[in-house]
Amino acid sequence: MIFLLKRITRAGWLNFIRNSGISFATCFIIGMTIFLIVSLFLLRDVTQFLIQNLQEKIDISVYFKETAPEEDILKLKEEIAKIPEVKSVEYISRVEALDHFIQRYKNNPVVMESLNEVGNPLLPALNIKAWQANQFTAVTSFLENVPQKDLIDKVDYYQRKPVIERIFSMATTINVIGIIFSIILATIAILVTFNQIRLAIYSSREEISVQRLVGASNWFIRGPFLVQGAISGVIAAIATLFVFTLAVFLLSPKFEILFTGLNIFNTFLSKLWLFLLIQILIGIILGVLSSIIAIRKYLEV
User: Fold this and answer.
1) pTM of the model
2) Sorting pLDDT into bands at 50, 70 and 90, what band is 156?
3) How many independent structural domains does the chain possess?
4) Is 17 exposed, middle or buried (0-12, 13-18, 19+ CB in 10 A)?
C-alpha cells in the first residue's frame, strides 16, 4: 500500500512538472484566492479591534437646563447607571465643562475673548457610555420616560446616530465585498486547475491506455491527477504564507500610525498556526475539487 502511494505521488509530481507553465499559473490563482480569504480572517480581527476601540470612544451627552437642580441630575445619573446596557455615566457640571472648554481653546484668542464677554454658556451634562454602540437606543428610550424629562435640554444621540450606524455599515460592507471577491477568485482557481488537469489527462492519454490494457485499477489511474491538484494547492499555500507574512510585517507599522494600539503583525503571529492550517486546507480543497471535476468529465475508467 505504501509503495502504491509512493508511485501515485511520484506520478502526480511528474504530471505537475510536465505541465509546469500552467501548473505555476494554477498555483498563482489558488494563491491569490488563499491570500484574499486569509486576509478576510485577519481583517475580521482588525475590524473587531477598530469597532471596539471606537465604541469605547463613542458616548452620548444629556444636556440639562441651566436651572436644573444638581441633586436631580445626580439622582437621574444613579437611575441611568442601573440600566444593563450602560457601561458608565459621568456627571459634568457647568464649572467642569467650562474648565474643559478653556483647556481645549486656551490658545485661540478669538474664542477666549468671546467667552469672556458671554460668561459661561455651557450646560451641565451626563456623558453616557454603553457596552455596545447599538445599545444607545435603549438609553434614549429610557430618558424619554423619566420624571426629570422636563429638566433635559437635549440629547445629542440623534446627531451621533448616523456616525454610529455608518461604522457598523462600513464593517459589514467590507466583509461582504471580501466574500464576493473570494468566491470569484475561488471559481477562477477551480476553472484554472480544472484546465490544468484536463491538459494533463490529454498529454497522458497514451500512458492511460497502456495502464488500462495491463489492468491498472481506477484508483491507480486517477490518483496521480488528484495528487497533482493537491500539490498545486500545497505549493500555493506555502508560497502565500511567505508573501502574506511579509506583507503583514511591512504594513504593520503603517497601521500602527493610523490606529494607535493596533499591531496586525502581532495579531497575525498569535494565530499563525490557524492561518497556516486555513491556507493549506483551502489550497488542497481547491486543487483536489478541481481535479475531481476534471477526472469525472474527461477520464472514464
Assistant:
1) 0.60
2) confident
3) 2
4) exposed
